Known about the structure:
By secondary structure, the chain is an alpha+beta fold. The protein has 2 domains: 4-151, Alpha-Beta Plaits (2-Layer Sandwich), CATH 3.30.70; 176-307, Alpha-Beta Plaits (2-Layer Sandwich), CATH 3.30.70. It contains 6 helices and 15 strands. The two termini are 32 Å apart.
Amino acid sequence: MFPLVKLRLTFRALQDMNFSAYAGSTLRGIFGKSLRRVSCLAQRADCKGCAAVSSCPYAEIFENGALSNGGDEVPNPYVIEPFDIGVKNIGRGTEFSFNFLLFGKAVGKMSYALLAWSKTGNMGFTKERTQARLIRVDQICADGSVRPLYDFENADAETFEAQPCADLPPPVETDAVEIKLTTPLRIQHDGHPVRPENLTAKDFLTALVRRQQNMAKHHISDFPPVDFDRLRPAINGAEITDAALRWFDWARYSSRQKTRIALGGVVGTFTLRGDLTPLTPYLIAGRDFHVGKSAVLGMGKYEITRIFDRN
C-alpha cells in the first residue's frame, strides 16, 4: 500500500464563467497562488534559499525544484484533472467539478491544499477573475466508489477523513489493451513532441513506467520497486494497432518566462498489443499518475476501455 488520495472538488459559480478549451493551466495557476498565500510564512518571491523550505507545504506540493539538489527533474506530487477538452461555459449558480490528486508524503499536507482550494473561489477563476465557492469535497476510492468528505452547504452534514491509500494491482494475463487518451499526451524526443503518426508503444510505455518510477523515487517510499530491466522486453516487444489519434494544440502563458508555451499533445484511441501481462499493474496505476509532460496540469490522462483475455 502507498499514500494516494484522489479528491473531487465541487464548486458553485457565483458569476457566469468561461473556461478555455483546456483548463488545466488555469486551475494550476490559481491553486499555486492560493497555496502560497495560506502556507508561505516568508512571502518570498522565490523558494530557493528560504530557511523554511524543507517544512513548507507550498514548496513540498508545488515547488519541488526548490527542494532538489540537482540531478534528475523532481516531479511535483499532485495532479489536477480538469474538465473534458472543449470551451466550458458555466452559468451563475451552476455546479462544476474537477479532480485533485496528492501522492506520497504530500498527502500529509492535504489540509493546506484544501484550504487553498477553498480560497481560490474568492480570488477568482479565469482571466476575468470570476468567483465561485467550494461546496463539496468527495474522495474517489480505488474501486471507483465515491466517499463524501465535506459538505460546506449543509451545516449538519457529517465530515470524514480521507483514507489515502492505493496499491499497485496484480498483473492481468493479456496480450491486448485498449487505451483512450482523454487529455493531451505530450512525449518529447530531443526537445520535439512526438506527433500522432509517430507515436509508438515503446514511447508510451517507457514514459508510463518512468513517470511512476520517478514519482516513487522522490515521493512514495512505499511504492513497489520498479524493475525496468525486467519490463524492458515487454516494452520493446509491444506495438500499437487500430490507432485513431489526432493532435490537440493548446498553449499556456508562463508568468515567469513572460511568454506563451506550446503544450499540444496526442488525443484519441489505440490498442497496445504484445506480452503486456507484466505491464498491466503500471497501466492500471497510470490512470492516476498520468503519462508524459505536464502531468500536473492533467495532461497524459487516459482510460483503459478494455483488457482482452489472452489468446
